[in-house]
Each structure stands twice: as structure tokens, then as C-alpha cells.
Amino acid sequence: MSTAQVWLPIRPESIDGLPAELEYVHWDAEPEFPADPADCVFYVAPYMKKAAVKTQPLALMTNLKVLQTLTAGVDQFLPALPSLPPGVRLCNARGVHEASTAELALTLILASLRGIPEFVRRQDRHEWQGGFHPALADKTVAIVGYGAIGSAVEDRLAGFECARVLRFARSSRATPRGPVHSIDRIGDLLPEADVVVLVTPLTPETKGLAGAEFLARMKDGALLVNVARGPVVDTKALLAEVESGRLRAALDVTDPEPLPPGHPLWDAPGVLVSPHVGGPTSAFLPRAKRLLADQLQRFAAGEPLRFVVAES
Ligand SMILES: NC(=O)C1=CN([C@@H]2O[C@H](COP(=O)(O)OP(=O)(O)OC[C@H]3O[C@@H](n4cnc5c(N)ncnc54)[C@H](OP(=O)(O)O)[C@@H]3O)[C@@H](O)[C@H]2O)C=CC1
Ligand SMILES: O=C(O)C(=O)CO
User: Fold this and answer.
1) Which domain holds residue 195?
2) 5-8 β-sheet, strand order
3) D-isomer specific 2-hydroxyacid dehydrogenase NAD-binding domain spans which residues (predicted)?
4) 268 and 212, same domain (yes or no)
5) What is the per-residue pLDDT across 183-219, written as a single tens digit (0 to 9) for each?
């Protein structure tokens, strides 16, 4: 090993405050490696490049100390951990995506309830046709996964005069806003919710969480919003509910993803699909750069890193 390098998918000269004592290699996920992967001690994974996750040279990074993601979710990185040297810290991008993803959750709720997709289709046909639509005011919203993004969703619901917000996480706790319920109580409380927002990580416990039984407990006419990961919802069970007209859905993430042409979710009644755009917004790059500068200053100074979510 010759030098201790940091491999970045963002040009290092565009990031303020990088410590001078480290060497930076700009890595934009082209198949050819820009330097020797054995020299890399701090690897920042490319953002939203699925092919790059497959071609990333992690297995060759024999001196790696830190794998920093630019995503909040780390489900796509966990399978790589066993092949890394022992003690590599996996850090996620907490603080980067909360605002954008919570904002999208609200956008999807409002667009679905107020019939915006149908208005866009009618505008294309120059067709003036109104009608009554559900409002968010006076509705009960359940947030399933009351973490950084889940609580940011509640922040953004504050002005909408909802009747109630029901909060769920792995374990129950009290907050100044009210109780967070254990997920074990979801079956009892789901029938009270008009809107259910899924914002958990994808884990073995949450895979298929919104399956046939969960969906059957939802109120007639309720809206399911998924900004978590596609496999948190059982697509087949959801299709049965939306095709019968009993439930509606707004999905930023799908299973499979990307949703292939011809998939029944595209044309399912009452389903609004956005192509996994919760995180990638104008807020991403400045926040990601701040996170990287902070993490690398800590790394260079030998201080504890932030947002360590796993270790190899
Ligand atoms: N659509 C998009 O573009 C984006 C999607 N995401 C997705 O959102 C997810 C959540 O992000 P973030 O809020 O930052 O994560 P956090 O870790 O801050 O919060 C996750 C929450 O989910 C809860 N949770 C975990 N397992 C379960 C379970 N089995 N049942 C119920 N609740 C559970 C946790 O409970 P507890 O508090 O008890 O630990 C916690 O409250 C990410 O992992 C990612 O998959 C993130 C960014 C953008
Ligand atoms: O941060 C995440 O987990 C995403 O899904 C990408 O925006």
C-alpha cells in the first residue's frame, strides 16, 4: 500500500473543508478503476447508480476502513459486508435525505387525495371537469417507521389540520407529540388510519410488512404511501386491493424496481407511481458535501465517525 486514499463520486475540489492530509481520488463508477483499490481507506459509494453497486471494487479494497453511503437506506450495501476486511465501518447519509423524502411523502399524499394525476390527464385532453375529492384535513395519518424521515413527515403534516397522527416503530416510546406505538400494535390501530405512510428501512422484519393481512386491516378507501423500499409492500397483495377499488396507493419505490414496462402497477386504478425520487433533489448535493467534509475531518483527526450503522 502506497498512499491512504479517499475515493469520492463527487469532485473533491467542489467540496469545502476537506482535510488536506488525505489524498482524494474522484471515482465516478466507470468500470475502470482510477487507482489501486488497495490504497483506498475511505470509500464513498456512488449515489443512485445501481450498476455501480455491482461493479464497485469493494472486494479489492483490502485496506478499507470506512464505507460511506450517500443514501439513508443501507440494504443494498449489507450483503457486501462479509467480504470486507474486519472492522470496516458502514456509515449512512443521515441528515441528507430527510427533508426531500418527507416533502415527497406529503406531495404524494396531497396529489393522490386531491386527484392531481387525473387533472393532469384531463388537462392533456383540454377537459374541464371538477368534482369532490378527499382533503387531508380531518384525516388520521399513520407513520410506519417513526425515525428521521418519519418524524420529518409529521413536521410537515403540522399545518394540515389532521385529526390524528399514529406513529409506529420497533419499540414503543413517548415523545412530546404523543406516543410512538410498537409495530406489534399495528393490527389494532390500522383500521383507524385514512393514510398510511411506510418509511422503515428494508430488513428481514420489514420485508412484506404491508402484506395481505396488513392491507386487509386498512380502512376502505384508505391510501397507502410507500417511500421506504419496494419489498416492504407485497406487490401482489396490493394489486388485489387496488384492483378491487378498496385501497389507493402512492409508491415512490416498487418491487420490482425499476418497474418494468407492462407491469400491472403502472395502470392499476388509484395508483400513483413516482420513480424513486424521494432523495435526489436540489437539496442532495450541498448536504452530501457537508456530510462528507465533516466525516473526513473526523476521520483525519482520529475522532469517532457519525452515523455508523454496521461494521464488517
Ligand atoms: N424514497 C426515497 O428516495 C428514500 C427512501 N428512504 C428509505 O427510508 C428508510 C428510513 O430512513 P430513516 O428515517 O432515515 O431511517 P431511521 O433509521 O431514522 O428510521 C427508521 C425507523 O423505522 C423503524 N423500524 C425499523 N424496523 C421496523 C419494523 N420492523 N417495524 C416498524 N418500524 C421499524 C425504526 O424503529 P426504531 O425507532 O424503534 O428503531 C425507526 O423508527 C431508509 O432506510 C430508506 O430505505 C430513505 C431516503 C430516501
Ligand atoms: O437514501 C436512500 O435510502 C434512497 O433511497 C435514495 O434517495
Assistant:
1) 98-273
2) 23-26, 5-8, 40-44, 66-68, 89-91, 308-311
3) 106-278
4) yes
5) 999 999 999 999 999 999 999 999 999 999 999 999 9
